[in-house]
Predict the structure of Replication restart protein PriA.
Amino acid sequence: MGETVSFAEVIVDLSSRNTDRVFHYAIPPDYRDKIAVGSMVTVPFGNRHLTGYVVGFGIPPGEVRIKEIAGVIDEGPVFTPELLELARWMAENYLCSTAEAFARILSPRLQVKASRRADVLVYPALAGAEMEKALSLLGRSPKQLAVLQKAAGCPGLTKSELAAAAMTSSKTVDALLKKGLLKVSAVMPAYLQDAPGDMIKTGSLTLNQDQEAALREISASLDRGRFDVFLLHGITGSGKTEVYLRAIAAALETGRQAVALVPEISLTPQMVELFRGRFGGQVAVLHSALSGGERYQEWRRVKEGQASVVLGTRSAVFAPCPRPGLFIIDEEHEPSYKQDDHMRYHAREIALKRAQLAGAVVVLGSATPSLESFSRAVSGGPYKLLKLPRRVDERPLPRVRVIDLRQEIREGNRGIFSRPLLYALNGCLERGGQAILFLNRRGYSTVVVCRECGLVLKCPRCDISLTYHLEGRLRCHYCNHLAVLPGLCPGCGSRYIRHFGAGTQKVEEEARKIFPKARIVRMDSDSTAQKGSHQKILDAFRDGLYDILIGTQMIAKGLDLPGVTLVGVINADTALHMPDFRAAERTFQLLTQVAGRAGRGGLPGEVLIQTYSPEHYSISAAAAHDYEGFYRSEMAVRRVLGYPPFSHLARLLFTHEDEEEVRKGAEKSKELLDRLVSGRNCRVEILGPAPAPLSKIKGHFRWQLVLKGRRRENIKEIIREGLAELERDRRFKVAVNVDINPQ
Ligand code: ADP
Ligand code: ZN
Ligand code: ZN
């Protein structure tokens, strides 16, 4: 390839800097075949070795002494040309360095040491009649039988997934591996590839007309191999997942790969089972709970084209598919798609950009689309709207009643449960039905308040309200600071300081008192701290071992619990009163999702929403299952206040250990930005500075500036210039973090 190939242009990861510089390194002869554009290397830099990314080849200018590349990480390039381009776009759009973008795309960091090939997926070692025989011989060991049946039905689960699916421990799986009835492999063994089994069964549903129509449009775009975006607006229980699965099959048929993203909470073993049941060993699962080694294995399988279906959470959007043809984002409105520290990317935005670069199709799915997405899918917007307005099998949507808690108080009921909810619970239990009681946020209303002076007890380090737990203990949910409930108010000495309102524990306590015979279980991050216990509780509830499930939003999303006929929302206002312009949208989304949990089986469902603001449109529209009504009301509000989607926001977050320093830093930045704005005469508004909603975290004070403007370009330019100027200022010691369109 000639002399030019002896020098590589390398972007070195200098994690401290905001800017990029390309450095030249000589390529030692041994590495000449191994290094390509997109390779990850280690290079000497100063007296250290750092990570670098090869972005090109060329002759170094001038007579600087050129050092040699010290090592190559991974075989071949770690970035496809599309991902290299994506990194440049991220640097430009999230105002970070390309090196940072590279690191984020590979995040979780490529596990250098994990390059040993370990086979991770479990398959039955037999098929057909031999399998039948093996199963019949296992009669006396029900656990092993269950595992083998699962493995036959869903070939290609990992060991722990298989154990969980068969409700046993991985010891049972090991026993079967030892007996030779199961085997591990990286890809589906040939003898299973045309074995029918459950794999066909799960794919044999007949689509209804709406699903059929949606699939037809998506498939047509896939066949054309063109960048297209669909918004699949389907009510809860309308069968969106089946459309995703068929669309993935269609993408595979065109010889390309598919990436499906789900929110963290939806990535359950059932979801994995569903995908593996349909696509077997072609599925790679990527999420943050995997160990570094496992993650690397899956990453390699994707990169080498062995796994053409990726199922994962947020960061799986960076999956290194050689030729991605389809990106699916389920529950596209979920805030968990936004990365919340360092580089604050949004997985939806990344998927859209990748699809544009690769000529792929994007399917955004939701029962309650974000206003940003829905507004692009109506009135001639660039997205195509696909609707699934009915539940499968014409199951009715549950009846929703709004209960005015003010009325209850006026009539002397100060309890957690309104009388209509008590009545409904009673009826539900008598009929042998199951109920879910939902409280928006764990601990949100277990703040400790002095009823005399109104003082709220807060964490001394984080400025977050402390939460009351059993045994008089208080806890900060950010830094885990623990305190003891004081006997007297530290502000006024009153005795009337107590935890106020209801948390999930309190709801559980009350429910047990009122319904002593009911079998009650609570699910929140306290009761599910142990890995896997979340799933155990849900399985037991689904199997009918409990009558009432009490929980936080953890139980609101994506669960299919056919026995549930009653859903009670203890207090809808907790979401409504958050300090966020999306509070109404979040309230509507939460209520819709919670309501969607009722009546998914054969029985009709009922939903009761308790609130002090029954007239608020987010609550009345959710009760009427009226997304479009909510959309119109909320768009009117956003238009008047100039919030997204009518504008773009950016947040500059300033942090420092010294409060005075942060305040001064934020004020100085405000002056600087104001000057830049008036100099350019562009329409960008700068709000603040103000202490951030969480004004102190782990000993660091936080202030913020919010920029608001119609054009994202303008905001970015102002920030870019402002940051450059601050970086040149040696006296400016405050850390600044940029968040474009914060969630
Ligand atoms: P959504 O994600 O839209 O809330 P799901 O995809 O969870 O809905 O579907 C709800 C249930 O309906 C699932 O149990 C699914 O297997 C089933 N289902 C989906 N499509 C069909 C169909 N065409 N016929 C019968 N059942 C279906
Ligand atoms: Zn007091
Ligand atoms: Zn704290």
Remarks:
- The longest strand covers residues 684-697.
- The pocket of zinc ion (ligand 2) is lined by residues 450, 452-453, 455, 489, 491-492, 494 (CB under 6 Å).
- The chain has a mean pLDDT of 83.
